[in-house]
Specification:
disordered C terminus; 4 helices; 113 residues; mainly alpha; 7% strand
Length: 113
């Protein structure tokens, strides 16, 4: 039993290291769906043009002084949806803006060694 657990741990470490290496080289490591504005094509992250246009709208509205709830309401009124087809929420708008400004969300289990 202990040997099997050690084997599982070793495999987990190898997978984790490979994902980190791929992410460091700009590849998509496969944790959930890509962030809004990007898509995976042949294992590489590339811009999603339609989502990039929505990001630009969010940026413009935020720069003009609109609040997160106002931006979310406007996006919903215009018929824009999130990557998963849901209505926009203020927190969803905030996440897009945080990515634009280089604030990265901590991914559980992906802490530095």
């Amino acid at each position: 039993m202990a040997a099997e657990e050690s084997k599982d741990h070793s495999l987990w470490e190898k997978l984790n290291q490979a994902r980190k290496a791929k992410a460091a080289s700009g590849g998509y490591a496969g944790y959930g769906s890509p962030a809004f504005g990007q898509q995976s094509v042949n294992g590489e992250l590339v811009d999603n043009p339609a989502e990039q246009q929505i990001i630009e709208l969010i940026r413009r509205h935020h720069k003009s002084g609109k609040s997160l709830p106002q931006i979310a309401a406007w996006l919903n009124q215009q018929g824009y949806t999130t990557k998963r087809g849901h209505q926009w929420q203020p927190v969803s708008v905030k996440r897009v803006l945080d990515r634009l400004h280089g604030k990265m969300q901590r991914i559980s289990g992906m802490g530095e060694d």
